Amino acid sequence: MNYKDIIFGKVKEDNSLTDKTLIKSLKKEGHEFTEDMFNKTLLDLEILGLIHVSWIAKDTRKIEIASQYEENDEVELQNKEALKNDYEASFPGTENQT
Asked: What is the pTM (predicted TM-score) of this model?
């Protein structure tokens, strides 16, 4: 039984879920994980760049597919470039200087 495949498959199905929801879902399907094994598997998947884990409450983590972050990063870079261009264009007499 490959824990990484099981957990990644479940996260991929839902795209984004909390750790508590994931544990409940895995238990419903008959998969039992110790807390240590669950945390180690999440860490391994995050190191591999497959998922992103973030804290949303004191004892709750949000788990997402990492490719969503890559798309957001590209959009964020485009937004920063547009803001930079707008800022530079706001100075009179610099339109032709690049």
From this structure: 0.66
